[in-house]
Amino acid sequence: MNPLAIIGRATLALIRTAGALAIFSVRGLMAALAPPWYLDQLRAQLLRIGFFSLPVVGLTAVFTGAALALNIYTGGSRFNAEQFVPDIVVLGITRELGPVLASLMLAGRVSAAMAAEIGAMRVTEQIDALKTLSTDPFRFLVAPRVTAAVICVPLLVLVADIIGVFGGYAVSTQTLGFNGATYIRNTMNFVTNWDVISGLIKAAVFGYIIALMGCYHGYNSRRGAQGVGRATTNAVVSAAILIFAANYVLTTLFV
Questions:
Q1: Assign residue 253 a region: left if phi > 0, alpha if psi is -120 to 50, beta otherwise?
Q2: CB proximity list for 120: less than 8 A, separation 6 or greater
Q3: pLDDT in tens, 198-212
Q4: In 3D, which of 234, 229, 200 has the Cα closest to residue 217?
Q5: Average pLDDT for residues 223-229, to the nearest whole number?
Q6: Rounded CA gap, 157 and 93, in Å?
Q7: What is the C-alpha to C-alpha distance for residues 218 and 122, in angstroms, rounded to an integer?
Q8: pTM
Q9: What is the spatial distance between Cα 19 and Cα 83, in angstroms, rounded to a whole number?
Q10: DSSP-assigned letter for residue 50
Q11: Residue 77 — very low, low, confident or very high, per pLDDT cuts 50/70/90?
Q12: How many CA atoms are closer than 13 Å to the CA of 115, on its beta-carbon side?
């Protein structure tokens, strides 16, 4: 029960995990950048991560934009600044809420699915079978998922930006009394290319984190169904935490 021993073991475990994750990340990145590429696997992951995630991302974005417009109007009315609703909505959606909320929804959907699928392959020794057949698991399993996530998440965030701004527009014009043409004009005059691009850069980084966490925890799962369930939970939690941390770092760099 020595407190120093407990702290030491926890510190060593943290360093060990960070090192293993760094090695896994480098191996996955090298596998994604160098041939051979398994294009059938890549196409399947593009469909799963991109197309099948559109409904959940779209619904999240439209309700986020609508709620954001209502809250900005409520706060702005206290200072007679209701006219700034279009400006703040488009800035908040493109720079922060669009990338972060869409990535969090994808972390819950995509990271969990990757961890469960690869974890099941691990506990049923399918990954060992791939090695026996001289197939690199990193090229066959990790690289297509990482590549697809880095490609799809920025596209999904771009769609989320458009839908989120439309959600704010719909609420503002139908409920808050804004003129539609004036709202669109103010939005287009205020938003800049960098606002959109910075959000898409964040989305690419978040996509890499989502795929990395799902693949890492699934690849290292153990002990049957219980281990797969634990890997799925750890993938979602770790992806969400790293998304928030990366968002702060990137926002600091982009300001």
A1: alpha
A2: 126, 228
A3: 999 999 999 999 999
A4: 234
A5: 82
A6: 10
A7: 8
A8: 0.90
A9: 51
A10: T
A11: confident
A12: 31
